[in-house]
Amino acid sequence: MNSNTPGGRRPAVRGRLRLLTVLAAAAALVAGATAVANAAPGSSDGKGHGTGSANTKKVCGAAKPGHARCLAELRTDVHGGTGVRGPAAGRFSAAATLPQGLSPADLRSAYHLPATGGANQTVAIADVGDDATAEADLAVYRTTYGLPACTTANGCFHKVNQRGAAAPLPPDQGWGVEIALDLDMVSAACPQCEILLVEADSASFDDLGASVDEAVALGATEVSNSYGGDEGNGVADYAHYYSHPGVAVVASSGDSGYTIASAPAEYPTVVAAGGTSLTKATNARGWTESVWQGAGSGYSAWIDKPAWQQDANCPGRMTADIAADADPQTGPAVYGTSDGLTGWDIVGGTSASSPYLAGVIALGGHPQKFPNASAFYSDHSGLFDVTTGNNAFIMDCGGDYQCNGVAGYDGPTGWGTPNGLSAF
Hints:
Blueprint: H1 19-38, E1 56-58, E2 69-70, E3 73-75, H2 104-111, E4 122-128, H3 134-144, E5 157-161, H4 176-189, E6 194-200, H5 205-217, E7 222-225, E8 227-230, E9 248-252, E10 262-263, E11 271-280, E12 287-291, E13 298-304, E14 316-319, E15 322-325, E16 333-336, E17 343-348, H6 350-364, H7 374-378, E18 383-384, E19 417-418
Parallel strand pairs: 4-6, 4-7, 5-6, 7-9, 9-11, 11-15
Antiparallel strand pairs: 1-3, 2-8, 3-17, 8-10, 11-12, 13-14, 16-17, 18-19
């Protein structure tokens, strides 16, 4: 995907947007992906801190043309040790306690989900490079939370390269935190699902796309993609990798707020996963949600709006479609021992919402409903509507739905977050 600026086609934005918003959007599109990517979008100081927060950092740096970056954001102020709470142990030692991240039970409570289901589903995650400790780290996470074992030996866990072979695996390329987050979030949503980790040779869109194709060839029923790159000339060339009728393909909407649309989330055959801030509350639900400031939203200058998406002010494909918790400040506990993780930590970004929502789709057991996101547009009664907050920390859209949580559809959270399985 190159970063050339759009030529000959200019988005026509109508309705309530202020003139300033139109000019800002046009300027961003003319600048293309290059300026945003080189500035490490969402950083507070240009050095990788996420969304203006001094206690988070982006796991992956800016992507070069034709490549994607992982979208995980790691908390730097929370470390809970390396202890494991097994069924026999009953508790953590004082020296080995969990961080204050959300557990699978917390997420089930927030989203009204069952603890079982999805036993006939295989959720694939496409990542870059090998994480040599992925299976062992996953075992710690699942043992700690009382989830059933998911190992190579029992046939639940599979790790392959982008050609579907167990060896040789690509070298470590710094995506270990992302891989740990992806594995843990699929496990949190669907403990009975099989998990397929496909490790691409590189972060090029051709290698990542080949990994998605291979995941489907190996029997994946859902595929999560926690990465993205800003659109530009040629973005449509990679869309075919993400079109697999009968398989639900989910992708993170980005972690740079309201800005240039992100691929592969913008492809019309993909369910684009936005992000929220999720906190416990004393209301009837027991939780409150608002737009996470970093949740990616934007409209495409290159991908036409699909017929099933009819938001008023954007002529191109708009993201996101649905959402889940993504804020590192309210994020899940994750366990890993590679590439910056030294045990328990808290990790967020829409890198968390994509695998979690892929797991929820698997829990529902009907991936054929999602050759695209149209099912959520035709019936969103089974979703919590997120109506507060905004993601306008790079660009502003005024009071418009494109960057603000509003009743009904909005860019940062789409139609909302899971409220049970009726939407899935």
